[in-house]
Fold this protein.
Amino acid sequence: MTNSIEEIEHAKCILAIGTNTTYAHPVIGMKVKQASKNGTKLIVANPREIELVRHADLWLQQKPGSDVALLMGMMRVIVEEDLLDRDFIEEKCEDFDAFKDSLKEFDLERVEELTGIPKDKIIEAARIYATDTPSTILYAMGITQHTHGTDNVMATANLAMLTGNVGKPSTGVNPLRGQNNVQGACDMGGLPNVFTGYQAVVNEEIRKKFENAWGAQLPGEIGLTLLEMLEAAHKKEIKGLYLIGENPVLSDPDAQHAQESLETLDFLVVQDIFMSETAQLADVVLPSATFAEKDGTFTNTDRRVQRVRKAIEPIGISKSDWWITCQIAQRMGAKGFDFEKPSQIMEEISGLTPSYGGISYDRLEDGSIQWPCPTKDHPGTPILHTEKFARGKGKFIPLEYKPPAELPDDEYPLILTTERSLYHFHTGTMTRKVRGLNVLDGEGMVEINPKDASQLDISDGEMIQVISRRGAVKAKAKVTDVSPVNVVSMNFHFAESPTNQLTNPALDPVAKIPEFKVCAVRLEKVAAQ
């Protein structure tokens, strides 16, 4: 996030696009609802009638995968009605003219056709966002999990810069991360193209810094993402895989293919706190400790580094992830893995990572710190880009509309989009072991609009089969207006109805994120046994 969570409720306008905030991020969702109650204008852009719609001043019900067209249409209105922040653009941005020229492709008649949103609503949204400032943008996987997800994110950045809603309190572009500490994992180099702090592996000077610190020669080539690894395993180009806290048998698109890839490996190690569906395929399972059984830090969605303190001793033979990793490294002959406690690891992080340079366990005893925090006397950074952008000037990016990789046709006439339940987390490895949560939400269902259900003669609660080009999954139908006509929705928490056997593994060419949010399916009634 460019800004902080506590700033949200002080915005004059919130644009929540591609985020079911009250379900996926309920704490932030409460702040959004409180802001709306206190007079903040709330614009919700979501194909489904999520809970947040009830609190919205304006609901933009776009067709799945049409976010670029919607945002570019809003920006065309802002430019044509001279609602842009010219001083901000001239002082802090570049390439505006090329971007402005790209808006010619987004006349509102075309945008209405692409998005399904009446142009009057697009005009209203543009005016609210541009004039009820400070305005903040919230987005989540509904924006990123597309084959054009990078373009979607660029569009939100263009919109914020166009109106000067960057670098100021209660403004910004604020992605809500999908899992706890996913921000911290990325910060620590859990990506194939960077070291810690997003320092590029292809940069020779940076690479030498890490080589000198670690006493090892490091590769200068960009590595593979998870889906690329699994595809390489399927082709027998990778023979061994070490998975930590990941359950691709349920979480990856085209999950049957993912399982086949794992079964093709010569050697699979899974390190996790419970015996997940993926761990059941492993040659070796390493039991790791939960958050309550170890010391460390989490970095949350607004770049806030926080201490996690051990409450109980690890149960059974489970160990902290850092300890397991160090033990394996030492037994393989690697040097530099002789840490005795997590605070020593943080010292190394600070020494090699400029954005974490001033963060230590001693400082975190007094509370959290938001990076970048380059020195020990730096207070941390609640708001990014207050003086200038990290690259100097903000770069406007011309964009074009790109459809989803897979659209409905005669054989597969409906769109499936994936969702999350308020009561379960990710693949259910933890939450499905909680009896009370299973009482509240005990099975995966297919949400289907009443009009579609009527045409297919499907009744509420009836067992049906959802079929895509990659697989078939059985689940009960939930007939509801929440899902728009021609769109069905499922969550992916339940192994009994593994939704991701259906989803499309097509990747965004830049971010390599798969298109979970749009795939073509058909529904069939299940014959009585």
